[in-house]
Amino acid sequence: MIRGVGADVVDVARLSRSLVRTPALAARLFTPAERRFPSGAERPPASLAARFATKEAVLKALGGPLGVGWRDIEVTQCASGRPSVRTHGPATAHAARLGITAWHVSLSHDAGIATALVVAEGDDTPTRPATDGTHGP
Amino acid sequence: MAHTHATRIREFITGRHPQAELTDTQDIFSLGFINSLFAMELVMFIEKEFAVTLPNDELRIDNFRTIAAMSELVERRLAATASAA
């Protein structure tokens, strides 16, 4: 059962300018793992913008900004490169309250715009607790 | 003091969106130019401009809906910083 849907678009150049203008911003928005590829190389602005868009899309799927910080929503990547979402703290609590048990994520960036679409999936019991805050494949 | 905060917040918003004519109590989200990136820039501006930290539990839409609400948020965080010092 679909519990929520969220979409967001981000201007890559604008986010890039913000990251340059405010050096502390990257650490505020992204976990250390999000800022790098699994290989250890730093992610370029387009990739970070797609991750920021994902966080905002997840917030929308949860029903809006509800005291959830950007790092409470972590965009992960499995070995195949497929993105997913891991929630922490209040984001996990909100997801549990909505009965969300899995997140499905699609990211894209082209022509200077990063986009994210997320679908929150759950079972028929809206109060099922999330055990470890990990959702997705 | 809150009046000064409101002025600086308004200047930030109109600096990015010159077409915006804002009163202190106007719902800025109803005006159509606020997106997720601008909301993030607004949070970072408030933290930097007023030397406050906004904890996650303050990142609620009602705290940013109007200039007055943001001014109150700044006052609250400044008071919290002062009491912790």
Automatic annotation (TrEMBL), chain A:
<dbReference type="InterPro" id="IPR008278">
    <property type="entry name" value="4-PPantetheinyl_Trfase_dom"/>
</dbReference>
<protein>
    <recommendedName>
        <fullName>Holo-[acyl-carrier-protein] synthase</fullName>
        <ecNumber>2.7.8.7</ecNumber>
    </recommendedName>
</protein>
<dbReference type="InterPro" id="IPR037143">
    <property type="entry name" value="4-PPantetheinyl_Trfase_dom_sf"/>
</dbReference>
<keyword id="KW-0460">Magnesium</keyword>
<keyword id="KW-0479">Metal-binding</keyword>
<keyword id="KW-0963">Cytoplasm</keyword>
<feature type="binding site">
    <location>
        <position position="8"/>
    </location>
    <ligand>
        <name>Mg(2+)</name>
    </ligand>
</feature>
<feature type="binding site">
    <location>
        <position position="56"/>
    </location>
    <ligand>
        <name>Mg(2+)</name>
    </ligand>
</feature>
<dbReference type="InterPro" id="IPR002582">
    <property type="entry name" value="ACPS"/>
</dbReference>
<comment type="similarity">
    <text>Belongs to the P-Pant transferase superfamily. AcpS family.</text>
</comment>
<feature type="domain" description="4'-phosphopantetheinyl transferase">
    <location>
        <begin position="4"/>
        <end position="100"/>
    </location>
</feature>
<dbReference type="Pfam" id="PF01648">
    <property type="entry name" value="ACPS"/>
</dbReference>
<keyword id="KW-0443">Lipid metabolism</keyword>
<dbReference type="InterPro" id="IPR004568">
    <property type="entry name" value="Ppantetheine-prot_Trfase_dom"/>
</dbReference>
<dbReference type="GO" id="GO:0008897">
    <property type="term" value="F:holo-[acyl-carrier-protein] synthase activity"/>
</dbReference>
<keyword id="KW-0276">Fatty acid metabolism</keyword>
<keyword id="KW-0808">Transferase</keyword>
<comment type="function">
    <text>Transfers the 4'-phosphopantetheine moiety from coenzyme A to a Ser of acyl-carrier-protein.</text>
</comment>
<keyword id="KW-0444">Lipid biosynthesis</keyword>
<keyword id="KW-0275">Fatty acid biosynthesis</keyword>
Automatic annotation (TrEMBL), chain B:
<dbReference type="Pfam" id="PF00550">
    <property type="entry name" value="PP-binding"/>
</dbReference>
<dbReference type="InterPro" id="IPR036736">
    <property type="entry name" value="ACP-like_sf"/>
</dbReference>
<dbReference type="InterPro" id="IPR009081">
    <property type="entry name" value="PP-bd_ACP"/>
</dbReference>
<feature type="domain" description="Carrier">
    <location>
        <begin position="1"/>
        <end position="78"/>
    </location>
</feature>
<protein>
    <submittedName>
        <fullName>Acyl carrier protein</fullName>
    </submittedName>
</protein>
